[in-house]
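Same chain as my last thread, 383 residues:
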Amino acid sequence: MFRSAMDTAYLILAASLLLSAALIVFGLLRRKPEPAAPPADPRLDHVIAAQGEIAGQFRQAIATQAELQRTLGERLDALNRRVSESLSDSATKTAATISSIGERLNVIDEAQKNIANLSGQVVSLQEILSDKQTRGAFGQERMEAIVADQLAPTHYEFQATLSNGSRPDCVIRVPNVKGVIVVDSKFPLEAYEALREAADGEKKTALTRLKSDVQKHVRDIAEKYLIPGEVQTPAIMFVPSESIYAELHISCSDVVQKARRMQVVIVSPHVFMLAINTIQTLMRDAKMREQAHKIQAAVVELLQDVKRLGDRVGNLRSHFDRTNKDIAEIETSMKRIETRASRIEQVELALPDEATNNEPPKLKVIQSGLRAVNAADSVPSSR
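reply #2:
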């Protein structure tokens, strides 16, 4: 808009200049060489006046252009400041965002490393659980960890040999009890996995397989380890998976009941910890029964000490009574001494005719006072 206004002003100025030059040339061409000047052409005056107006408009257009340039410069400066501030803020925010993204990427990298490690552990666990021997060792280690954490080393033994040559995973000894408690770990994982992955039409077959495996484990424990007089009943079958234990109670309750009738109890890790706590309570009771005679002897000695203390308190009371009696007699003597002393103070001096005696009157008074004191002291002793 500003450029178009400037172009228009330049065109008007150029047109006016051309018109003025044309008029001047035309006037000069028509000028005759007479010595006398022709009268002034009014059209030339009109052209000159128009040229003045055009010059004024041109100056006004230049002033307007300068004002527009100043305003445009101010606005450009303000726009530059706003753009600079906006770019600075954007740069700061972008840097902060990039830093935050970097931190989050580091966290994601650490999480990916943890996931990779966890995946490796899961693969390792799957490899362990896929083999029967390593799976059995895994269940036995879980059982041994619970027993070693709850009981003293003298109360249990791993892989102990019974009289028939069989070796259960663990035997627990309770004080003052002849038989031991047998614990054996079993892990029917394959049958459980088959039941969990089976389709609706195959669940019955998979459930039958699970029941058969559990019944075989129960039968083996009952036949190998339940030795009369050596092993207490029931024996404990440790299942190292809470999910398998729950599935047995939900889908195989008849197998669990049959195991109980065969004197075998199926436990999970949590139930086994509760059983160990119960065994600890029984052990504490047995120790208390062992120490009962010592407790009774200590109570008898305590009663004798209490009796001796009562006798000594009685003797001390007698001494206190005798001391009180002696103090009362001493107070009585003191009162009599005070009475005698008051009487001594009231004794009159001897007459003047007795002054010729060799003993002075004051000495006689003192001697009579001493006799009175001796007489007062002789009275309690006679009593």
